[in-house]
Amino acid sequence: MVVLATMAFAYQVSQLPANPWKGMAPPPAGHERWEGRVVTYESAKRLLVMDVDSTWNDRGDEHFFGRADRRELILPRSVLLRWTDRGRRAVSGSDLVGGREIAVIYRRIESEVGDATEIMLYSPGSPVPSRSGVRTPVARPGALGAIIDSDGVSSETVTLPIIYPVLGGTRLADTFLASRGGGTRRHHGQDLMAPKLTPLVAAFDGTVSLRSSPRHYWLTISAEDGWQAVYMHINNDSPGTDNAMGGERFAFAPGIKDGSTVRAGEMVGWVGDSGNAEGTGPHLHFELHTPEGHVVNSVFSLEAANQLTVPVPRQATTKFVRKSGQTRLDGVVHKYDKERDVLVVVMATLESDSGAGASLLPDLKYIKGAAKALGRAEFPVGAWVVTVGTDLGKGEAFEAASLEIVGS
Questions:
Q1: Domain 160-304 homologous superfamily, CATH
Q2: What is the Cα 305 distance to its own chain's centre?
């Protein structure tokens, strides 16, 4: 894999400023806390425009955005400003300079959007330096002399040749190193917002490592040269719901298991909101890691990436030869009805005389005569199967002429 890299030496080496909101209790009942930056403030209208990076509800849950969410607030005349090193006092226009990091306590009311009756502003005593270019280096240099931050971030500017990981592309806004967890950590990836169950494809050839917990699905693709692509917040819901009960069938593409090999552009899963993305809107959190294990900003690679409109078909090697007029089906065993000799598979790829195409959703296909075609009636759940026969169309069973179990 060819890597184009330049060094980013124009940075300020300094300690990140203390977060004035770190350790703050959740907002009062019925309130939210918005954390972000001032865009503008019009004193005559008392109109505050701010870019919100994250919000906290009264239960102490943090919701963050794939890109800054611009919001407007009409400040009541009774609003107070609390400095971290001073007492409360009335807010003035000189306090709300553009770029200043602030947090707003906002009470929801039933009125026009952007109005509020109670707000408190928290701000450090002086403007916080921009997070762009601020580094907290460790003593050792990284690859090509790059500075490696204490949280594993490399200062390298890298453009890696990749396939855009979300099929069809997305809007792209650079959220690398944005504040997360109330300032306790930095954002190591790019949040690519897309509708739930939008297909995810492999950014490059490699081996897949799957990770899952009761609330979160994610995976890593490792290339032979050591580069890694990390995919987080993969779908965990049943279609049309937010029930966190979709299981691996609606998370990872058919045939994608721990240790699977993939080609660039093949489907690996679907966009979701699992993990701490619940409530933020479905998206893919995408990271790139160097062979040394450091994190680099993936925005440059994403900006230059090749965007696919259809995935690369995923097919196994088989001894079968599809004849003219026949259809080949690649998929994964879902279950087997021995009494009726009907095999149910999760479709991965269908190939006919007009070409091969990947199934964009984890749809099921019913195969009649599976045991007869295979010569035995053993179909392990999760096994990859290839069958050739007659496809009677959507809603109709597939009539198998021949069938092979390729792996389990």
A1: Glucose Permease (Domain IIA) (2.70.70.10)
A2: 16
